[in-house]
């Protein structure tokens, strides 16, 4: 089994390449926590695009890692996450949070 995430493996495309290589050798790719909500959204999309995976690691308490989205990824009562239905990656970045935490603006 291989493990990875979009942050440590160079992005969505790189993680997909690793997944396909693992699949060629009959190995699974298990995706671990991305460190924040935005990375986890990208991880979730990779997970939904590959067949050779069984689970995605989520650190608990899950809420402690929420950061950066208007509406966070929700885990249902059975432990599943469902595909988003909105365009793009399906989640909206919390631009008000970004503005509040901004240190300076470069011009």
UniProtKB/TrEMBL annotation:
What the entry lists under InterPro entries is as follows: Enolase-like_C_sf, Enolase_C-like
Please identify the protein, giving its name as recorded. Enolase C-terminal domain-like
Domain Enolase C-terminal: from-to ranges = 5-95
Gene3D superfamilies named in the record = Enolase-like C-terminal domain
Q: Sorted alphabetically, which Pfam families does this protein's record hold? A: MR_MLE_C
The lineage's top-level taxon is Bacteria
